[in-house]
């Protein structure tokens, strides 16, 4: 794996962060105006598989306890800016878009358990192939919270059949970064029609004998933004995560 | 143990609920006006040991998915009504005090793991002695959330020394109902001066060789109400819990 310190990655990464800052937790970002913060937090409480909350900022603050020297407005490789549920910009620095009433939620990311998978000998096809992890919108509706609703998004990793059980066990022990897979095997069980056409990220190529494993994904709040159209939100761009200073094994139970 | 169906207990219990509805989860209650709901939910997110959220109601609704036929306004044995942080009433029915803007939070209760402890042969001194579990305000401050702050409250159980490790392991597997103890042994490590003078509930009598074990407690939000003085809140009376329809082993991981 290419690696680097979290601080170095935060300052230099320009693409997806899978495989970077080996051994450190990564996080999804969604920042919303304060009058939507309760609904985001409740949505997360009601949907803990896709939305395990690691940290919540004070209104307007770009600081997080997950990396005290970081600035959430500029230390992710790429952002998405949403107005009324529409994607309006994808900047590499969100400082010009940030508002004093924004509350930012940092949500566990499955990239966090990839070091543990790699150590156990589970190949990471997207990392090996130099691609972003593929993500899919499922037909499973999340439990709504006030004005916020939408479908669950999943990330998919092809895993050799004889390593599926091990991958399940390793990830089950890390519920704060999505935990056990929500499904293994048939994509149609999640309403996913074509694995080669992900809704976010890049398609990856399976090896013979690979089985698709699906984990709940922290892009789910972005699907909720699209479905629910809050007036404003800033998120990370899928796969372009916030790299924290927290060791990944902190989230192992 | 005295037992009974959850519905029967909800309709008939008049005292503490430890030992009742064997095999079903019990929950702490705190209901606050809607403009305090975000801070309660954030306080819980930041303090998951004392405040593991099981369910949040819609504003004004006395209904919860934890027991669809229950009415949160009258199905607990005893309530506490708080104004500006002061206890103003302790009714057995809170219907007359309920407001349309209240959001109710149901928080995991350690009574939920008592069936598992009993099955493993761990004696429950408070149940055997016909008393409420003793609870203590500690010197550990919770992480604040906006206007909400206060110390952690713990429940205490005397456990025979040779069963302490087993009790720790059993409860560690149930994080949604407070999980592993926060301390075992010396009360002064938590700033607790006298185990015979609990801040809530009743003192219990140890047997020779018993060790005090302390678990984070869902009365913590009441300590936060006292410290932070929101204009209004309704909680359960300590030990007088909401008995849910959810099997306790649902919360075992």
Helices and strands, with pairings:
Two copies of one chain form a homodimer.
Chain A: H1 6-12, E1 24-33, H2 34-46, E2 53-56, E3 79-83, E4 86-89, E5 102-108, H3 114-119, H4 125-128, E6 135-141, E7 151-160, H5 164-172, E8 183-184, E9 210-216, H6 220-228, E10 232-236, E11 242-247
Antiparallel strand pairs in A: 1-5, 1-10, 1-11, 2-5, 3-4, 3-10, 6-7, 7-9, 8-9
- Largest interface by Cβ-Cβ < 8 Å: A-B, 10 and 10 residues
Give the beta-strand count of chain A.
11
Gross geometry of chain A: globular
- The overall pLDDT of chain A, averaged over residues, is 97
Output the helix-strand order of chain A.
Answer: HEHEEEEHHEEHEEHEE
CATH architecture of chain A: 2-Layer Sandwich
- The helical percent of chain A reads 10-25%
Structural class of chain A: alpha+beta
Number of domains of chain A: 1
**Quaternary structure state of the chains depicted:** homodimer
User: Which CATH class of chain A is shown?
Assistant: Alpha Beta
Number of helices of chain A: 6
Alpha-carbon distance between the termini of chain A? 25 Å
Major sheet description of chain A: 7 strands, antiparallel
CA-based gyration radius of chain A: 17 Å
CATH superfamily of chain A: PSTPO5379-like domain
Could you tell me the CATH topology label of chain A.
PSTPO5379-like fold
Low-confidence stretches of chain A: none
Strand-residue proportion of chain A = 25-35%
GO molecular function (chains A, B): lyase activity
EC number (chains A, B): 4.2.1.-
Keywords (chains A, B): Lyase
Family (chains A, B): Belongs to the D-glutamate cyclase family.
